[in-house]
Amino acid sequence: MKHDLLTFADWQPGPLTSLLALAGRIKAHPHDYQQVLAGKSVVALFEKPSLRTRVSFDIGINKLGGHMVYLDSQAGKLAGREDAKDMGANLSCWADAIVARVFDHNTLEQLADAASVSVINALCDRYHPCQALADYLTLTEVFGDIKGRTLAYVGDGNNVTHSLLIVGALLGVNVTVVTPPSHEVEPDIWQHCQSLAATSGAQLRSGHGLDLLEGADVLYTDTWLSMGDDTPLATIKERFVPYQVNQAMLDSSGARYVMHCQPAHRDLEITSDVIDGPASLLMQQAENRMHGQNAILATLLGGIELDRS
């Protein structure tokens, strides 16, 4: 039976913790896993361009002994060209898995329904599970035990925010989300995360005031202007400038570290001195994209079992 990874929302803490541990082992001992995907081919279907996602999957699959076929946003755009249902069924004839970076989560669901091979969400409008896995791997490397730590997200409540909330709630990490008015996370995702947090003991908070950041261990931000958003930059800046992550915000919150999924717009959502400063975890996050994704591939395609307890 094939398994997909469209979101971690339907996962349990045990397997997720096991997946994080596997990512750490793959990073520490890559030679032990260099044949995990031997003879396997993965299609990477990208409606949206990328640097980190494309390169980390391509090199990561190669390091596991597999082969990646990249379909870019021009050759592989689904809307108006070919139904996602047909593309999923066709790609299953040749590929062992599909990695898809798309605009709409419904596209992923259609691909997964039609495909007889695993579909992995490399980003959609609602979730970014591979990024969240890399981020919590990074936090685990920095803090060791992350249960009870506090991650504070500042900025637009988006797909990255959703996945940070989901994974944090499962792992018992406190997550605070601070956004400008009208940029909150999706209500249904917030409610689901609250139910997860009730089991794990995580504390989830949201609001618009920067005072909520006090006591955070880590500040996290993302671009203010998502790909495809045609809102004028002047309007975006008017809403978001008070939420810029800078040294003053780090000092007032007491946070030791700062994170950003990148691409970062220097001196907009985050200042250059913070990106390049001692608190920055940005490059560690970027590196860990490959290791987290390789753990996903190893479990879905390579026959490595996760601890389900």
Task: Give an overview of the whole structure.
- The chain is an alpha/beta fold and 309 residues long.
- It has a five-stranded parallel beta sheet. Strands 2-1-3-4 form a four-stranded parallel beta sheet, with helices on both faces.
- The longest helix has 19 residues, at 282-300.
- 41% of the residues lie in helices and 14% in strands.
- Helix 2 links the parallel strand 1 and strand 2 (67-71).
- It is built from eleven helices and nine strands.
- The radius of gyration is 19 Å and the shape is globular.
- Helix 1 (13-28) crosses helix 11 (282-300) and helix 3 (84-92) crosses helix 4.
- InterPro entries: Asp/Orn_carbamoyltranf_P-bd, Asp/Orn_carbamoylTrfase, Asp/Orn_carbamoylTrfase_sf, Asp_carbamoyltransf_Asp/Orn-bd, Orn/put_carbamltrans.
- This is Ornithine carbamoyltransferase.
- Residues 147-299 form the Aspartate/ornithine carbamoyltransferase Asp/Orn-binding domain.
- It comes from Fluctibacter halophilus.
- Residues 4-141 form the Aspartate/ornithine carbamoyltransferase carbamoyl-P binding domain.
Précis, in short:
The protein has 309 residues and is α/β, with parallel strands linked by helices. It is built from 11 helices and 9 strands.
